[in-house]
Amino acid sequence: MFIFETSQIVLLKISSLRQKNVVIFNFYVGDNIWQEDKADIDAHVSTQFVYNANNSLSLDVQRKRLPIFKVKNHILYLLEKYQTLVLVGETGCGKSTQVPQYLLEAGWSADGKIIGITEPRRVAATSLASRVADERNCILGAEVGYAIRFDDCNDETTKIKYMTEGILLREMMGDPLLTKYSIIILDEVHERTMLTDIIMGLLKKILKKRRSLRLVVSSATVDAEELRDFFNSRKSSSNEDDLATILSVEGRLHPVDVHYLAEPCADYVQAVVDTALKIHRNEEQQRGDILAFLTGMDEVDRAVSLLKEHAERIGIDKQLKLLPLPMYGSLPYKDQLRVFQRAPNDTRKVIVATNIAETSITIPNITCVIDCGFVKLPWFDVETQTNSLIVAPVSQASADQRAGRAGRHRPGKAYRLYTEEAFAALPVATAPEMQRSDLAPAVLQLKALGIDNVLRFNFPSAPPSKSLLSALELLYGLGIIDDDGRLTNPLGNMGCSEEITTILAMLQVQNVFIRPAGGQASIKARIAHRKFEVAEGDLLTYLNIYTAYEKNKTHSWCQQNFINFKAIKRATEIRTQMRKLIKKLGLPLLNCGINTELILRCIAAGLFPYAAYLHYTGVYRTVRGNRDLHIHPNSCLYTLEQPQWVLFGEIQQTTKVYMRELTVIKPEWLVELAPHFYRRTAIDND
DNA sequence: GAGCACTGC
User: Which Pfam families match (predicted)?
Assistant: First the structure.
């Protein structure tokens, strides 16, 4: 028996089945890679526009105009004195591009050491590296480089390296003290992603062991003191011994006037429409576009269609026309691009967006922001092991981030559709992802890094202990950790490793299916997709699609079949990476041919905790907990006859509690494959 | 009949 980790699946476990010569893949996949319905994964690569008000100035003059320039020497001095510097500065102050260069110029990359900067998103890592390479007049990938998955753009001369958080975590596995680096800059820490928090916990340990290492924690907001105290592991109470300190940099380039409602509003979608129209009427002379934040696609579409009705009327008698545009992740790429295109001179754009416009993309020329005051947040309920999106009030930090979108190149205005008292009552910051997610992937990651006692691990914000325990329980149930909480080490031969790697790769890319919203195209897409659907469920349908794609591998094949070309190409990369890993580990890559049941049993061996059966009432029920469940409309089983027993990859609660990524199984497999988990009696009941 | 946003040796 043995265990191995790949970069894409959190863990791929192979264990032997009791049958002779048959070995199964047991797999456990991290929560968020099951998500689908995402925007074209590479859509934002080319939509990352950042407005540069000083475009005509030389790069050097531009650099010196940035607010961060004034504190350059301060930063360098503080890093001589302290091991950790919490750098607070809002977007636009230049910290992401300038600080690494100051450090380089001050000699922090001497004796071959690297200055590393982590970013939560790939576009940020690549575009910042490209910008800094320009500023230094060097080729991208030499002195200044980047590393994201499947794209290493750096060499042995690289001194400044931008990377995604996942890359740094991976590097810790091979080099636990990060000896290549003289300094690590964690950028956008205020977003408090799962990976940021894990990395901060690990870096705290590394900093104790490597006193020469420096850390810059770069955050836009408030939590500075909390973060400083976290890294201040000094023994005495004297400030002289402090290891961490804070430096604030004055923020954005232009002020934003914030307006509140005098009275709360009943319908914020209607209020967005009314406010946008009011701005448009009253500020005819002040050109500049409007950006409104709503929580989801439905609301965005509703607001846009209401605005369009008014826009037509305005078009007749007004000088300045109004062009309402939607913006959200699942919007087709070409429609997303429209928000970046310059409107005609006689037209003002009103962009109605989800949270995508808060951090992921930057739309130029915005002078007015409308903030509905709410956001959809992913929430994991430990008790029911259910993911849901809850509509929650935004935090003050988010509201400020949204408002800041109005002041990027000239003074702006922000209209908050709530009262000033309501703002004061908002939470200061959104709860870190770690406190509202399934922790099984994180716990596994930590275990793989040698953190045996995760309950005592020093997290920057401790997750609920219930979540940690539940994660441990799941890993134990899957046989991934033993009685002592240590990773097990199972190894076996496989009967269908090839098929399983393909399925795993497909599960990790979002938006494999192109599903047009309506009309003729949506019917065509459905017919095209139906060709691949099988009664065994979604996972085998994915296998079918990939196998069919392999024979052609062309863009036109994908177009004909309404398959997302970029997504499936990425699946190929992931699959290739996994196959290499399997070979490296000396395991056979076996294709089981027509023995589909073997694949189904493999899936069952990995997903057995997530079993549901069809109740006589016509809805499904979980075996654990007897909760009512429904088949998600995007599942291939939605239109087919309802099978008696299914395994699901994820439960998502929206209007109903939905199961996604379904696989049809025989109930006796559960008892056979997971006897410690299921007893025959339990299954025969009901 | 449904979709906040990201990410990985």
Answer: DEAD (PF00270), HA2_C (PF21010), Helicase_C (PF00271), OB_NTP_bind (PF07717)
